[in-house]
Each structure stands twice: as C-alpha cells, then as structure tokens.
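Checked the freezer inventory, then went back to the computational side. Two predictions to log before the end of the day. The first one is the construct we discussed on Monday; recording sequence and tokens without edits.
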Amino acid sequence: MQPPGPARRDAAEDAQWSRPECQAWTTTLLLGTCLLYCARVSMPVCAVSMSQDFGWDKKEAGIALSSFFWGYCLTQVAGGHLGDRVGGEKVILLSASAWGFITAATPLLTHLSSAHLVCVTFSRILTGLLQGVYFPALTSLLSQKVRESERAFTYSTVGAGSQFGTLVTGAVGSLLLDWYGWQSVFYVSGGLTLLWVCYVYRYLLSEQDLILAVSVLVQGLPVARDTRVPWRQLFRKPSVWAAIVSQFSAACSFFILLSWLPTFFKETFPGSKGWVFNVVPWLVAIPASLFSGFLSDHLISQGYRTITVRKLMQVMGLGLSSVFALCLGHTSSFYKSVFFASASIGLQTFNHSGVSVNIQDLAPSCAGFLFGVANTAGALAGVVGVGLSGYLIETTGSWTSMFNLVAAISSLGLCTFLLFGKAQRVDLSPSHEDL
C-alpha cells in the first residue's frame, strides 16, 4: 500500500537538495549542458569547411547536419524513464562519458573509409543517441530535487548552458577552425566533456550509485521505486498534449536555426567574421535565459497565476522569436541580420521558463518520461526540418523559405499552448474504465 499524499510529499521534500547542494549541482549541470552543446554544434560550425574538404553540396550537408537528430529522437523516452527510475544524474554521467569519446573520435572515423559522408553520418547518429537522454533525465532530476518555487530559475540557468556552449564553440571553435582545421573542434569539445565526467564522478557521485545505475541499464534489475508510467491517464489530458505540441515546436524551430545559421551567415555575408555571427546571438541568449527564469518565478511569487506566466513565456519564446526569424529572410544588412538572429535566439530561451517547466507542473513524478515524449516529437521534426531546410534552400536558392518554415512551426505550438495549456497537476489515478 502506498503512503498517503502528505507522507509522499514529506518524503519528496526530504529528497530535495539543500541550498548548497542545489547551487553545486546547478553549476555543474550548467557546465554539463554547455559541453553537451559544444559537442552538438561542432558539426554546424565545421559544416562549411567539411563540405569543402569532402565535396558536399547542400543536400549532402543537410544529411550530415540532420543525422544527429536521427539518433537524438530514439532515446528521449528511454532517457526520461531511466532518469525517473535510477536518477537523472547517473544517466547523464554515463551518457556524457560515451558522447565525449565519440565526439573526440569523429575526425579519426573519417579516415576509416573514402565514404566520408557515411562515416560522419554514423558518428553523428551515435552522438545523437547518447545525447538524447540528457534533457529528459535533467527534467526528471530537477523535478525531484528542486523546490517548485525555484524550478523555473534553476531550469533556465542550467538551460543557459546550451547558449553558453554554442557561444564557446562559435568563438573558440571559429579560431580553432582557422588555426588548426575542423578536426581540432571535435578533439577539444570531446576532450573537455571527458574531463567534466571525471570531475562529476570524483566529487558528486558515489561509486555505489553508479554501479546500481549500470546494473539497471545492463541487466534490468528492479529498484524500489514504482516505475510504472500511467500512459492512458497522461495522454487523455488536453493540457499534456498542449505541452507536447509546444515543446515539439520549440525544439524543432531551435534545431533548424542552430544547424543552419552559421551557413546562412557564411554564404550571405562571405566577407564577415565568423566569430561575430557565431558569438553575438548566443552572448545575448545567456542573460535572456537567466532573466526569463527570474521573471517567471518573480511573477508567480507576486500572485500571478502559474499558467498565465507559462503562456507569457511561450508568447515570447515562440511568438515574438519567430517574428525576428522572419525578418532574417528579408534583410540584406549584416548588422540587421545579426540583430534579428540575436533577438530570435535570445527570445527562444523563454521556452525554458514556459513549456519546459510546465511539463514538471503537470506530472512531476514522471516528468522525465513526459519530456522525453515531447522532445522525441521535436527531434523527429528536427530530422525532417533540418533536412527539408537544406532541400528548400538548394531548390529555391533562397533562405527565406527556411525562416518561413520556422515561423509556421512556432505558430502551431504557440496557438495550441494558448488554447489548451494548464499548470495544475494532472490526475493520474486510474479511471473506472481502466480498472
């Protein structure tokens, strides 16, 4: 028999991090997210140079860029469920050790065969598979360990690592690209990830915890926590579907811009400095992400309804950001393009304090699983969206079609969330039909 509701809440509160623990883990996970994106955006930053070396056209470059998402979409649900089951921090550490190694080994894999596109595609699929568990496991971890009143700021702070990692790779990666070639970008990002894994293993996790996690992953050993997912109850709720569609739209729009913006600037403004367009948008996005989390928690503490705040964040993250994305396709000025790109990327970080936290509002006990479902939808759309963008650009000869696609996808998610989004915890008790 399960303990009554108040007893379960007391147990959950006891399991939450103390303030020093929360600060230590927030900083560590911020760095982990940063390194995840360093590895992820190595390919977009190096795509032009690799295309020149290997003779790829836009369609082939689109295959290489989108291949990451082929693997990324396959492990989202598993990552979230494992995070709910064995602890998100353990899932994150085990996957990071593998994706760090694969990233560092990517340049070496291209020497295994003359079929360079096949080798790079295989490497990126593996990287996507391994990174796919990260954000669902992170969502599970924060929903269990962070107080509800601090959740938006914590999530947005950790989420800022995605912009910080893209910024670091854009700045340092551009220099490495010019000085040592594209191979050095993969070596450095993969190597730094492995160093982070060593730090977390030594200072923040016990060996016994990792052994248990590996046992569950390899042998499927049972653990004490009830891990059944209430599928039927979850997917009968319109608010759950609203969160899934909104997360799908946010992820897909972000993936398209992340993958193609470096190439857009490189080809549209060939005389421009790579460090400018690879750095400035992400430099803007970091304080924007932190501000969105602070603003969200502050408004809720001032008495505004939680769902009102979540929807406001989505208006900024999906609505206003897509307006600036559209502007990118209708200007010939480099400085205006950098401004529009910075505004669009910066405003997209408001999604961290909107739908990403809304998933934790709805079902904290299985937030990792639910986020995995939503992000799988986004990753699948990313596969299609990134590849389709390359096809549209190649066939139309214009970048406007790509930005129109981003705006259309964003509008779908925003309208769905505004109509059906809620913030109350959903009732997951079995209905009479399920008994």
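The second is the one RB wanted added to the comparison set:
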Amino acid sequence: MSTPFEQAFKHMPTPAFIIESNTGKLISYNRNFEILFEHLNAAPAASWETLCDDASSQSWHLLNQKVKSGSIERCESLIRVGDKLINMQLELQDLGDSVLACVYNTDHMDLSAAENTLLKYALTESSAGLWIWETESDLVSCSKSIATLLNYPLDKTPRSTADWHKIVHPDDVKKLATVVNEHVALNQDYYEVEYRILTGDQRYLWVKERGRSYTKGPDGSIKKVIGFMVDISHQKALEEHLRNQATFDELTGLLTRSAALTHFKKQLGLAKRQYTPLTMAKINLDANDRLSQLSMEARNIAIQTSARYIYKKIREADVLARVEPDKLLLLLPNTSVRDAKTLLNHIINPTEEEKSTLLEGNSEPMDFCIGIAAFPEDGETIEELALSANQAVEDGQAKCKQIVVN
C-alpha cells in the first residue's frame, strides 16, 4: 500500500480491514476495527475463514469473485469476536490484489459512522415512502411517510410479507409476490412493480414500488432489501384517460376506427367458422351537406345527437364506430341483408318523439344515407366489406336514396 493510502486507512473513522484477494488473509486493519475487538478482550482473526463464522477458503474465493464482478457491494455475516458471534454488515470494494471491507453496521456496538443510523433516521423522517425488509426474519419496517401515504397509524403499517399482501388488491398480489420472490431467488440488484394497495380509508391507491438489494450474505444471498413506494394514482388516471381516448371517440363515445377493427375481425372470424351471415353498413350522417353550413359547435351537437340515437336503435351484439367526422360504420353479426334493411329502416324512420329529440340536437334523419355490404358476397375481409359499403353510400348519395345495397 502507498503511504498516503495507509495513513488514510489507519485513521478513517469507519472500522475497516483489508483482505488479500488470492489467499483470504487479513493483511491490515485500522484502529477502529481493532477497537471493536478490544472491547471484548480479543484480537482480529488472521483470515476471512477464521473471522467469518460460516466461511471457508472456498467461500472466500467465491465471494472475492462476486466483489470483483460487482455483483456484491454489501455483505452481512456473523463475525467471531473472541467467544462471541456478532452480526456485521460490510461494504466491500475491490482494490485489485486485495479487498477493502468497511464495517457500516453491527448489532453489538454503537458506531457513530454506521450507515444503519442514517437508515433509522430515514425511516423516521423520510418524506419518501421508504421501507426495509429483512428477508430471513421477514421483518418489514416502514417510514412515517408510508403510514401517511396509506392513511394508517405507524404501528398499523405492515410488519411482514403476509401483512403487506393482506392490503394489496387481490388481483395484484400474485404479480407482486412473483416479482419480489424472483428478485430474492435470483439475487437481482433491483426490481420495480406497480400495484394497488388498500388505504386506511378503504380505497385502493395505485403505487409504484422500487426495491433494491441492500445487504447480501457471503454466498450472495439477499439479506435485506430497501425500497420506496410512490403514489402513481394521477399517472394511472391519465393512462386510463389516454386509453379511453384511443378506444372511444371523445365526441360520440363510440368506438374509434382502430378499436373497432379488433371487434370487426373477431365477428368476421366467427361468421367464417360458423357459416353465419354478417352485414356491414356505412352511415353518412350528412348526405345532404347540411352540417357543413353550421357552426363547429352546432355541427358537433348534431353528430353527437345522431350517434347517440343510432346507438340506442341497434342491438347489443352490433358494433358501431365513428370512422370519419360525419360517418359511422356499423357491423351486424348473424344478420342477413334483409334483416339489416329492416333494422336500418327503423333508424331512418324515427318515431315522432325520437324525431323531436333529433331536431332539438340539430340532427335530421333525412340527412342519413346508408350503404350495405354483405359477407361473403361483397368481400371476405373487413377492408373489402368497408370499401363495398362505402361504394354503396356514394351510389345512394348520387341517386338520392337513403338505403342502398351494394
């Protein structure tokens, strides 16, 4: 070791020692590490094998490899101090031919520089949802902020995995358990998972949990996991809004073209397998070009009124989508052309009460023009049927007919 390094090492406030990489021998230790042993009238051991209760020359070789590869940064082990075994948590750093081990926590002595003090402070004062999980004892310690986030008294926060799972949404428990179990079983460095958790006022909150291996044993097994929980309810609400926007037309509430395509293809597949009829109708809500003369607000009201009216007239199994600003596409499963014409005639011929409602919403049934295409006569794919129905609409407009069969 260089003289500056040696001097810094000897006087560093954290207890530390240096192990020779090839042999596992302790080649140096600082004064504060020596003091730990002096308290019990003992002297530090000569090697990792004699220092660590469950170590061997082979286990040091494996641990050294893990330190050099970066897969272990912290290690928790039972250290022999005289006739006692003391649990110590070590931070390990590869120095090339040797490994520097810093003692940052022990369950026996009070270390002013121990990182555990910071952890305890964080659990008490942290503004983030911090928790620590001891895997062997299954003890969970939660910060005050988790109690605040979940609206529980601090002494009512989960203290074990079973306690935690009790307040996780039943549909999310398996996902959470799988992610965490894989993290521990595979000795992963970190994990991330989103799930719903029950609060003290009996509502489910969407949270994101990020966990990281904090302490590992000499064999690489995870001893402690530290993690954070954050509220992502607003993010989930936005995602749901965006999904709805992608699936449902904002003005009419009908399916969008892309969302409807999935339903259309499913119904077409059933018709092919079951040899049942299927009809598609393209509905132009402004065949007389009346809406273009209205203001944008009045036009939107008219389209919305027409779409809601038509939706109420169709059957539960039918699929209706808005595919253009003033055009709808209607799929009628298990429906012949004749039956389709009967249904569509009811749409273009509203009752007096329905007509009054339509007129109040700037909608006029006489503006409707509907083109019909049938499977398989007019096409064997959704795209072919849509083209055929569109051609029928154009023919209807040219001939001033409200319902046209291609």
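For RB: The chain has 14 helices and 16 strands. The chain has three domains: 3-106, 115-236, 248-405. Let me know if you want it refolded.
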